[in-house]
Amino acid sequence: MSEIDWDDDLSVGVPSIDDQHKQLIALTNSLFQAILEGRGFVVLMDILNELAEYAVTHFDYEEKLMKAYGYPEAELKAHICEHDALKEQVAEYIEKCTAHEVALDVKVFNFLRDWTTDHLIETDMKYKRFFYERGVE
Ligand SMILES: [Fe+2]
Ligand SMILES: [Fe+2]
Known about the structure:
The chain has 137 residues and is mostly helical. Helices cover 75% and strands 0% of the residues.
């Protein structure tokens, strides 16, 4: 288990979006640190709630930008599907957290680390060139 390290390979070339991604990564990494200190479960609910809120802010931002610049419809749909899946999964984890599921902190961290890096590298990266060509900042 290791935390997510930000490096320039993760940049989508739009500073405002990179900043939001850094914040999502920092939130995920804060769960990692808490787990190492043996207080993962203490902070889990707060992190999930914060994530539920921040993910919506970030996803709305990306989706609005893609729509505003005429991002191809099929790609947009698939991208939004991934965002919606994450929101549903976080809501599910919040329910499990309320029910005190065992070792949930580690499960959530692993999920968030994989989802965030996969989504960033495979899905968000697809709009990098599109936004660059349109001068989106
Ligand atoms: Fe993103
Ligand atoms: Fe995205």
